[in-house]
Design a protein that fits this description.
Helix content: 40-55%
Largest sheet: 6 strands, parallel
Strand order of the largest sheet: 2-1-3-4-5-9
Distance between the termini: 35 Å
Number of strands: 19
CATH topology of the largest domain: Rossmann fold
């Protein structure tokens, strides 16, 4: 039976997965179950486990690894990194079990000149340690204490000290995890580039350790890392998320001139960001524009916007009370050029049915323009409402009979679209009128409403009337289709898993 300490960390997690895959039996413990700094308790615990299960191997994955914090928690650091491994080694020797524990390249001072550092091979096992920090000193002290057990003439156990460096993998927080957390708190990250070592994958370290144990190699110190070297800066991988195609969006919206000075500047910046990114996440589905800049297609991924479905399952009342006697078709969101609401007014003028009313909820630079049009053109079946709290939007959408989204007829949308409002529409279980030309026609794919090509305003009118003339059951079926579609593809939890996979791949 194998006994693992620190089983919930990176290395411990991979040992468990390895043993599960090959059918090795093990007991996994962590600090919440066994305090390895309590020598008396530790000895009693292992002796009991050995009596009950016959422990043949003890694996110590526990350690104090916070290098900076160790300077103020010296006692705890010493107990975990020096005393505990020594106690485990002695107990393993007493019961005749193999023991393996882990040290670090920090036991060396890192100077390229002066202390036996070989630029081609790095430090070797015979090099003399010169620890500098409290963390490094406790690790080295642990090595010395365990080595005393190895050298004891009465010891018959195999005991291994494995020096490694910058371990990354599953389990507890690593440097990559820290980078992600810091990025949530700061707009700019500063990472040192003068600390160089060999990042080591915990899964490989577990496999190497198991080979060491299986083969019954000679007791002593071993070095193991993955190939090549990197700095902390190199480890801080850069993932670029593209929300819109800048500056191409500005060009197509006629904000700047194509090939003008501003366009050329931002195009150069855009290309630079793409090239430097380890991965690129794009909201659209068509990568042609990105690939046209010479970017490797293998590092570009699609992850769209989405919706928090839990918010749509709350029972809250909308402050906007729509006319219950009308067939309400509702738009929510910004009121700007890109939202194409002038055509919504054109549509309203074409609807010769007093039972149908259009609701526009939101604000934006074109609201006054649209209100003036309504007054001048005497459009009577449009209602404007001020924005409401986002948490109340679901109830507003559910109080509508249908929802509408309109896109400008521009080439830009051929790369795909990912408007948040569309996924909120899906989540509300209401049929959708979609007006646009894009490769991402989610409404048609999900059979959750009626799609009409941009520029075909008469067809959009016919679609409105078709929805109105449907039975309640038919419209409810379209709404259910949309809800099922967003649950499977655009729930935030689904999208978060995709992001996690991309992060893990770098």
């Amino acid at each position: 039976m194998k006994l693992i300490f620190g089983a919930n960390g990176k290395l411990g997690t991979d040992f468990k997965e390895l043993f599960d895959s090959i059918g090795e039996k093990y007991i996994a413990t962590d600090k919440n179950e066994v305090d390895i700094t309590n020598g008396d308790f530790l000895r009693a615990y292992i002796k009991t486990m050995n009596q009950n299960y016959k422990i043949d191997t003890i694996i110590n994955c526990a350690a104090y690894n916070d290098v900076d914090k160790a300077e103020t928690e010296k006692e705890l650091c010493y107990k975990l990194n020096a005393e505990a491994p020594a106690n485990l080694a002695m107990i393993a020797s007493e019961i005749g079990a193999t023991f393996i524990t882990y040290s670090t390249d920090f036991v060396f001072n890192g100077l390229i000149e002066g202390y036996l550092y070989n630029e081609s091979t790095g430090y070797i096992e015979e090099d003399e340690p010169h620890p500098l920090s409290t963390y490094a000193k406790t690790k080295y002290e642990g090595e010395l204490l365990v080595s005393q057990v190895i050298e004891n003439p009465e010891n018959t156990s195999r005991i291994y000290i494995v020096r490694t460096s910058w371990v990354f993998g599953k389990g507890n927080t690593n440097f990559v995890d820290k980078i992600i957390e810091w990025s949530k708190q700061k707009n700019e990250l500063k990472v040192v580039d003068d600390q160089v070592s060999s990042p080591t994958y915990s899964k490989d370290l577990a496999y190497f350790s198991w080979e060491l144990i299986k083969k019954g190699c000679e007791s002593g110190i071993y070095h193991f890392t993955n190939d090549d070297i990197a700095s902390k800066y190199d480890q801080a991988k850069y993932i670029l998320e593209i929300r819109d195609l800048w500056p191409e969006t500005w060009v197509q919206m006629k904000i700047i001139k194509k090939n003008g000075i501003i366009h050329k500047f931002f195009l150069k910046l855009e290309k630079y960001l793409y090239e430097k990114a380890d991965k690129v996440i794009f909201l659209g589905e068509n990568f042609n524009y990105i690939l046209s800049l010479g970017i490797d297609k293998n590092k570009v991924y699609t992850i769209s916007n989405g919706v928090d479905l839990e918010e749509f399952d709350k029972n809250m009342s909308s402050p906007i009370k729509l006319n219950a006697e009308k067939f309400n078709i509702t738009y929510t969101g910004s009121i700007g050029t890109a939202n194409n609401l002038d055509e919504l007014l054109d549509l309203a003028k074409l609807i010769d049915n007093d039972a149908i009313i259009f609701n526009i909820v939101g604000r934006g630079p074109l609201k006054e323009h649209l209100e003036n049009r309504i007054q001048e053109e005497k459009i009577s079946n449009i209602r404007f409402y001020d924005p409401i709290d986002k948490t109340l939007v679901p109830s507003l959408l559910r109080s509508s009979q249908a929802l509408i989204i309109l896109l400008l007829d521009i080439e830009l949308y051929q790369v795909g679209i990912s408007p948040n409002k569309l996924f909120e529409y899906f989540a509300s279980s209401r049929p959708i009128l979609f007006y646009g030309n894009t490769v991402s026609d989610y409404v048609a794919r999900s059979n959750s409403g009626i799609s009409v090509p941009a520029g075909e305003i008469l067809k959009l009118r016919d679609a409105c009337l078709k929805l109105y003339n449907m039975s309640t059951e038919e419209r409810e079926e379209l709404g259910r289709n949309g809800r099922n579609y967003v649950e499977e593809n655009f729930d935030w939890r689904v999208l978060a898993n995709k992001v996690d996979q991309i992060i893990e791949s770098v």
